[in-house]
Amino acid sequence: MVDRDAPIPEAELHAYVDGELPSNRRAAVEAWLAAHPQDAARVAAWRAQADLINARYAAVAQEPIPPRLDLDRLGRIDRRRPLLALAAVVAAFVLGGLAGWFGRDTWAGGISGLRVFTADAIDAHKLYVVEVRHPVEVAGANRPTWCSGSRSGLAMTCARLSWRNWAQARWRTPAARRERRRRRARHVRRPVGRALHHLLRAV
Amino acid sequence: MNAFRNNVQAAIPALRRYARALTRDAEIANDLVQDTLVRALRSEHLFHEGDVRSWLYTILTNLNRNRLRTLARRPTLASIEEEDAPGTSGPVTGARDIERALSTLVEDQRAALLLVVLEGLSYREVAEVQLPIGTVMSRLARARAGAGVFGWRASAAP
To answer: Using one digit for the tens of pLDDT, what is the confidence trace for A37-72?
Structure first.
């Protein structure tokens, strides 16, 4: 009959648990398990493990299928997508080309923000690069005198920001009015000054 | 709807079950099944004969392997929340242990174990998913030995 002493390979034990064992080996394995409780415990453990896995996950197959797994919908998306992508690529190419063609003169020769910025930076560099004593910047109080004269060719003063000075600048105070009259009189007295005065008014 | 479509449709519940056990995350599982279905529909012309079901299992297993490979290259952002509400299916006791035990397995071993135990595929069918059949056997054996370290030793010795 069955040889009880022939050792059963582990693969056959697995096959036995999973119902993969050829029927003519079944009796031999069962006899082996009856004689070897340690292997019988292993087989029982594998079965229990399988039961637990099924108990945990078998119900997932009974759940309603989410709508996003609907085959018709997935098929539609799959068919539609390449056409859409192609259309988008063509549209982007055509739009870009048209914009480039019609807009080719818009920025050519115009003053861009970058160019203005660059010019400012170069001016600042030219102004300060000759300076040895103040390599970075001149303190605020010294700046008017520093800027005046040979550097810029202009006489510069700082505006004093008080109400009196503002009004004086607009010829509002009595002293300013007197000054204005005095200047007018001086213009009248000096022909060149008067000509300049009229010219400025005309402009 | 043709026969191929019908077969795919019929396999969806089982695919969801397999994906859920494989990833232990409902959202990722549904993503995997969706990718599997899209790929299957797209390559319908490549499928000539044989079992649609094990073909779909193959696609899903490969997609999951790719997913894990991509994940391994990225820094991990582990979720603090629990993935699944415990005990929504099956007994509450042991459900956590099962998930933990499955998560300790190497991906290929987990796939082999689940395909045999949960999906009821024959060794030959699993071999179509993961060649060759000797590899399937050794993976199954190691999965059973490895997963036994956790959880069900106590419950398995009545």
So the answer is: 998 998 998 898 889 889 889 888 888 888 888 888
Closest residue of chain A to B122, computed from CA coordinates: A20
Can you give the pLDDT at residue B139? 85
| Alpha carbon of residue A105 to chain centroid | 30
A46 neighbourhood in chain B, CB within 8 Å: 144
Give chain B positions within 8 Å (CB) of A75: 41
Q: Residue A172, Cβ neighbours under 10 Å: how many?
A: 13
CA-based nearest residue to A43, from A61, A26, A67, A57: A26
**Contact check, Cβ <8 Å, B16/A60:** yes
pLDDT given at position A135: 58
List all residues 6 or more positions away from B114 whose beta carbon is below 8 Å from its beta carbon: A53, B18, B21, B22, B102
Cα–Cα dist A93/A29, whole Å: 72
Task: Answer for the pair B155, B122: CB distance below 8 angstroms, yes or no.
Answer: no
Judge if ipTM > 0.85. no
Query: Whole-prediction pTM value?
Result: 0.57
What is the rounded average pLDDT for all residues in chain B? 78
Q: Hey, what's the torsion of the CAs at B20, B22, B23, B27, to 10 degrees? A: -30
Distance from CA of B42 to the nearest CA of A (A): 7
Does the CB of A48 have a partner CB in chain B at under 8 Å? yes
